[in-house]
């Protein structure tokens, strides 16, 4: 029985990749890595790479790289963070592939709660966006939760459901930018490693687009002496 979870996980991973590469071009695919690594008891390093495609792979929509330094106001619960992001976008305009870059500074506050099996997270983020020919400010509110399935806690070898909703608001007109709704199946590999396969629907003013998402999460501490 001890090998069953490993076999299920490997099957889950292989099927996720196969599923993503079988999609038609009207369904995008995002491959994502998130690192949130403790430097010591109070400080943490955020590091993130997202490779977003218009299709399964090869037609790049956006490459997003983010990093930041965070500080725990209370241990593992309330965290403030200052970060920087670089975004390379390759949208289609009138059927022609274009390219533009963005530099982004952001500040965020994350608070977490636990109610029974429900792991809840609120994230409030303010962004200063330096575009090639414009400057914009944006506010984002993220509400997410995880629910373990085969165990009561998020321990290794746990399957869990992951869900979130995130709304984006401009400081100028139009105020509404977009809304993201996400659902996924996740697996806890170890105390500091998780993987998720999910679907996200992004709603914009004149556009509604689905995204298959494969996410890998790393919380391995940088200093194990704490």
Q: What features would you describe in this structure?
A:
The protein is mainly beta and 226 residues long. The chain has one domain: Beta Barrel (Porin). The protein contains one helix and 13 strands. The strands form two sheets. An eleven-stranded mixed barrel has the order 1-2-3-4-7-8-9-10-11-12-13. The protein has a two-stranded antiparallel sheet with strand order 5-6. A hairpin with a 2-residue loop joins strand 5 and strand 6. The radius of gyration is 18 Å and the shape is globular. The protein starts with a helix and ends in an 8-residue tail after the last strand. About 6% of the residues have low confidence. Pfam families: DUF2490. InterPro entries: DUF2490. This is DUF2490 domain-containing protein. It comes from Chryseobacterium gilvum.
Describe the secondary-structure layout.
Layout: H1 4-21, E1 28-38, E2 43-53, E3 60-74, E4 78-89, E5 92-93, E6 96-97, E7 100-115, E8 118-131, E9 135-148, E10 159-170, E11 176-190, E12 193-204, E13 207-218
Characteristics of this structure?
single chain; mainly beta; Porin; two-stranded antiparallel sheet; 13 strands; DUF2490; DUF2490 domain-containing protein
CATH architecture: Beta Barrel
Q: What would you call the structural class?
A: mainly beta
CATH topology: Porin
Distance between the termini: 35 Å
| The number of domains | 1
- Identify the strand order in the major beta sheet: 1-2-3-4-7-8-9-10-11-12-13
Helix content: under 10%
What series of H and E elements makes up the topology?
HEEEEEEEEEEEEE
Q: What sort of overall outline do the alpha carbons produce when their principal axes are compared?
A: globular
Tally of helical runs: 1
* Biggest β-sheet strands, sense, barrel: 11 strands, mixed, barrel
Q: What is the CATH class?
A: Mainly Beta
| Unreliable spans | 12-25
